[in-house]
Amino acid sequence: MIFEGQAVKVAVDDAGVATVTLDLAGESVNKFNSLTLSELATAVDTVKQIDDLKGVVFASAKDVFVVGADITEFTSWFKLNDDDLTDKLRDVHNIFNDISNLACPTVAAINGIALGGGMELVLSCDYRVMADSAKIGLPETQLGIYPGWGGTVRLPRLIGVDNACEWICGGAQKRSADALKDGAVDAVVAADKVQASARHLVQQVIEGKLDYKARRDELRAPMEFTPIEKMMIFESVRGVVGAKAGKHYPAPMAAIKTIEKGISQSMEKALEIEIKGFIKLAKGPVAKSLVTLFLSDQAIKKVAGKVSKHATPVKQAAVLGAGIMGGGVAYQSASKGTPIIMKDIRQDALDLGLSEANKLFNGQVERGRLTADKAFKAMNGIVPALSYGEFEQVDLVVEAVVENVNIKKSVLAEVESKITDEAILTSNTSTISITELAKDLKRPENFCGMHFFNPVHRMPLVEVIRGEKTSDKAIAQTVAYAQAMGKTPVVVNDCPGFLVNRVLFPYFAGFSLMMQEGADFQVVDKTMERFGWPMGPAYLLDVVGVDTAFHADQVMAEGFPDRMKHDGKNAVDRLFELERFGQKNSKGFYTYEPDRKGKPKKIFNDDINALLAPIVASKTELTEEDIIARMMIPLCIETVRCVEENIVSSAAEADMGLIYGIGFPPYLGGAMHYLDQMGLQAFCDLADKYSHLGKLYEPTANMREMAKNNETYYSA
């Protein structure tokens, strides 16, 4: 060992080949924090001093290669002035340039994940050997930035402009087969053979079978295109990426611009272009929002990990109520390795639930994410049942029957008598009080809420709801099961609507008020979609189900009558009365018919305006700013109330709940972060302009106090 630090080690074998091993002490993964970067620089300087060096292999002693930059440290760079941030970026460039300029061949032995800065280290090497189980990629655009350590310069020269733009702008983690096909790596082998294969590759260079210098020269040189070729490539890429990224996410288009400027330049000039563009993005509001979300996501996962640390694993689960929701829960559980009994009182409901799960497994097979054999085995993990025959073996039950308090109470009491005293009972309710549902149970301490979002296989959030008598054990085991299902659990306290629906219904209330004033729901939908929501409120109500929204609205009005009760009929009441329930019966605000893939296609029909006419009390002209304000103000205030009342423990958990549960625009960072960015005083001033609309538009006393003191939620 010629160098041994706390994160990097260097050893040289008898043949004169050095191995630089990344192994960050005290961490389960390698990441580029200041210590690792400093020691990597020292390691490279050490290697440069070796006489007659034949080659260098960069390897990892952990199961991953490098997961990327330490984001908690890296974000502190964004607060630096432009000159200091430029110096920081150049320091890393110098390390990677020194690697690419070593007087011998270099090979990256990618045994596991190599992302972001880890991938940029890999790109600075001459050759790359990748484990068949590893993944590589440049995900920086998902944080509102683009690769800043040479990725926009080296990757296009290695795999071509088209592929590089797709890798960088999409930010996806690439599997070994795709990486090899695109030319990002030179060989794919079993994980336990990566280092040996990398060493063999060095030997091939030593023996003159590979010319690393010619490869180096080719990858350093400017790329040559005719003006027409260049225009055609980049106009095509811009069209595809721009349509996907949208106006709120500037990083992908900025990456294309940087690549376009850099490909015709020398390596040195191209790196300087990358630095300038990176700094502009790093100082922008979108990067701040998306990085905050990333850190919040890490924080809530850490919280969930602490909660579930001592939980007993769920080895056998059950879901009550089949159909679409039950089938989705069953699929998610079985697909992640926890067998599940799916019980219903009707065979046709079981058939529907099994059909739903089977459709999802077949989709995974068609997309190449599962083999047919693995899908078949996972599907066998779902056992349909018309009786409680095997429920004595169940560790946790998810009740997912109709959203009716009396029916749920009856079913819960029945199943409680069929399971062991230790088993945990949960209810997949969206609004009904967990404390109320527990009233007739013999073991209320073993009962909590487990609220999934539809479609279950796509929506990452699970609300775990603590009732008055719910034990820590019940919460821990439910959180552990949600994690085992691949979900992000957030623990909330009991109240009507819990967190997500409690916040969502004031948003719908803002929409209903505008409808009563004669607003065009299509205009409102398009406005909110342009603002960044995945769908506007009318379309969202159709997807949720107008009947579901009608019943939930009654629960919310009873729970919070001072601000959520409304006089007379609103649009949801009217559509419910007309039995226009949305997508579930193909008519709501919009009408629906199957597209070529069998998915419901939204169609506007003029008849709806006449049907909604009885609820229109006046005609008000609303600007786009009015629409956004009237939708967002009540949502933000109710989110604050949930934090102030300890329904949810932190601003981070509240924001992630809204991002993962209802698709709150990520570029805004969540409702609490949005308030911080706007400034509480500016928000309160805006809300006061709409105070005539009622209590939903009144900021809390604490919000006004914080505004006066210029406080923020995230600094708190």
From TrEMBL:
It catalyses: a (3S)-3-hydroxyacyl-CoA + NAD(+) = a 3-oxoacyl-CoA + NADH + H(+). The keyword Lipid metabolism applies. It is an enzyme of class 4 (lyase). Pathway: Lipid metabolism; fatty acid beta-oxidation. Residues 497-592 form the 3-hydroxyacyl-CoA dehydrogenase C-terminal domain. InterPro entries: 3-OHacyl-CoA_DH_CS (IPR006180), 3-OHacyl-CoA_DH_NAD-bd (IPR006176), 3HC_DH_C (IPR006108), 6-PGluconate_DH-like_C_sf (IPR008927), ClpP/crotonase-like_dom_sf (IPR029045), Enoyl-CoA_hyd/isom_CS (IPR018376), Enoyl-CoA_hydra/iso (IPR001753), FA_oxidation_alpha_subunit (IPR050136). Keywords: Fatty acid metabolism, Isomerase, Lipid degradation, Lipid metabolism, Lyase, Multifunctional enzyme, NAD, Oxidoreductase. GO terms for cellular component: fatty acid beta-oxidation multienzyme complex. Residues 317-495 form the 3-hydroxyacyl-CoA dehydrogenase NAD binding domain. Its EC number is 4.2.1.17. GO terms for biological process: fatty acid beta-oxidation. One of its GO terms (molecular function) is NAD+ binding. NCBIfam families: FadB, PRK11730.1. In the central section; belongs to the 3-hydroxyacyl-CoA dehydrogenase family. In the N-terminal section; belongs to the enoyl-CoA hydratase/isomerase family. PANTHER family: TRIFUNCTIONAL ENZYME SUBUNIT ALPHA, TRIFUNCTIONAL ENZYME SUBUNIT ALPHA, MITOCHONDRIAL. This is enoyl-CoA hydratase. The lineage of its organism: Bacteria, Pseudomonadati, Pseudomonadota, Gammaproteobacteria, Oceanospirillales.
